[in-house]
Amino acid sequence: MTVSRVNTCGNFQPAPVMVPAGTTSAVSSTDCGATASAAHVTYYMGSKGCVFHISTIYTIPNPLLGTPGYWTPKASADSSGGATCKVVSQDLSKIGTGAFKAVFSMK
C-alpha cells in the first residue's frame, strides 16, 4: 500500500510510509491540543483506495450536573475502486488522555 495523502491537525509522527502486503504500518500519533485530535491517511494499492479516519474529541466536565470530562474516540474507513477498508480493532485503554489506537485493514 502506498501512502497518497496525510491530513492531520498536528504533527503526525512517524509519518506513514509504504506498507508491504501482509504487514502492518508503524504506530503513528498526533497531538492537536487539549480538546481534539484528528488524522486522515489515504492509502492506494493499484486502483483501490482507502481513507482511514481517526479522531478524539474532549467533552469538558459539567460541575452543575456533576459529570466528568471524557474523550470520545472515532475510527472509520472509506473505500474507492472496489477496495475493502475496515477498522479491525480499537484500543481505548488510554482514553483518559485522549490517546487511543486503531488498526485498519485494506484488501
* Computed CA radius of gyration, to the nearest angstrom: 15 Å
Strand-residue proportion: over 45%
Could you state the order of secondary-structure elements as H and E?
EEEEEE
Estimated structural class: mainly beta
Number of helices: 0
Query: How far is it from the N-terminal to the C-terminal residue, by CA?
Result: 10 Å
Mean pLDDT metric: 85
Q: Could you list the spans in which at least 5 consecutive residues all have pLDDT below 50?
A: none
Inertia-based shape:
elongated
Query: Portion of residues in helices?
Result: under 10%
The biggest sheet amounts to:
4 strands, antiparallel
Characterize the structure shown.
The protein has strands spanning 2-8, 36-45, 48-59, 70-80, 85-91, 101-106. It has a four-stranded antiparallel sheet with strand order 1-2-3-4, with no helix packed on it. The model has no long low-confidence stretch (mean pLDDT 85). With 107 residues, the chain is mainly β.
